[in-house]
Amino acid sequence: MIITHIVSGPRMRLLQTITKVTSKLPSESYQKMSKFIHVKDILGIILRVVQLYTNFSKTPEFDVNCWSVLIVMATTHVALLACFKRINENLAHMQRFMVNDIKSCVPSLIHNKHRNRFLMIKLKILKKQHLTVSNTVQMLNMNFSLQITAIIVMTYVTITFELYFYIVRWQDGVFFNVDTQYLDVLITSTGYNILKIILLVWVCEASKNQAQEIGTTIHDLFNSTNDKQIKNELQLFSLQVLHRKNIFSVKAVNVDAKLLTAIVGNITMYLLILIQFLNMSHSCDRKTALSVTQSN
């Protein structure tokens, strides 16, 4: 909350930039984004209310709410995903236009000149839009880096200790058993935290893949034309795409499917470490009890 308050100014500038970037999207894209955001918010709020009810009715402990930060993050990522997708669709449309024009029976020099001029203008616009969206991705990484780092660390720590306290038991040895009294608490709390990470990773991975697909579309478009000026412009566009990775990262860690795999691996590793400490503590208790009995 402190970090969010400190970076409130840059966050508002980021949202204003997002508004400008997405202002050129068609109404269909807005409708798709609106449906996704509303469904996400409704499900998130319902799950959050259920989680708070079960937690405070059985385990009244303090729980940090990070859903508001994720709402802003998911909304901005979905908007950037729509922007990258729109650029990719425009490039694919240009490729189809070139292929259909080559197959048509209009081998006019004037027609080709007007067509190439139109394509050059369109390419320059798309290249400028891509640069603007890429700069927005960089702003997003800078403004939300600390918050997302905190959310990721807190989430996997919470999941680890919840699984340990609600599942791991000791009775002459370590065994796994779920107390049915707290089963709903475990399911809602763990499900809520898992949903946060999956949602964050999904929107980042989808945006990254869509941005990388632009490079493939540019290459296909390059092979579909023989005009030197268009080829030069496409080469410049391709270099711009190569230099702007558009990867969402926090503190040199990329937010993608590999991060999700790493979190699962860390949870498993720390659970095993906690189980080893539990086994060692009970071994020490047995040795102490045995020494006291022998001394008596």
Oligomer: single chain
Output the helix-strand order.
HHHHHEEHHEEH
Broad shape: elongated
Proportion of residues in β-strands: under 5%
Which percent bin holds the helix content?
over 70%
Averaged pLDDT = 79
The main β sheet shows up as:
2 strands, antiparallel
Number of contiguous helices = 8
Structural class: mainly alpha
Question: Total number of β-strand segments?
Answer: 4
Strand order of the largest sheet: 1-2
Low-confidence stretches: none
Could you tell me the radius of gyration in angstroms?
27 Å
Q: What gap, in angstroms, lies between the N and C termini? A: 57 Å
Keywords:
8 helices, 296 residues, elongated, single chain, mainly alpha, two-stranded antiparallel sheet
In short:
By secondary structure, the protein is mainly alpha-helical. It has eight helices and four strands; from the N terminus they run H-H-H-H-H-E-E-H-H-E-E-H. The strands form two sheets. The chain has a two-stranded antiparallel sheet with strand order 1-2.
What does this structure look like?
With 296 residues, the chain is mainly α. Helix content is 82%, strand content 3%. The strands form two sheets. A two-stranded antiparallel sheet has the order 1-2. A hairpin with a 3-residue loop joins strand 1 (168-170) and strand 2 (174-176). The longest helix has 59 residues, at 109-167. The chain is elongated and about 85 Å long. The protein starts with a helix and ends with a helix.
Detail the topology: elements first, then pairings:
Elements: H1 2-6, H2 8-22, H3 27-58, H4 67-103, H5 109-167, E1 168-170, E2 174-176, H6 183-222, H7 228-243, E3 249-250, E4 253-254, H8 257-295
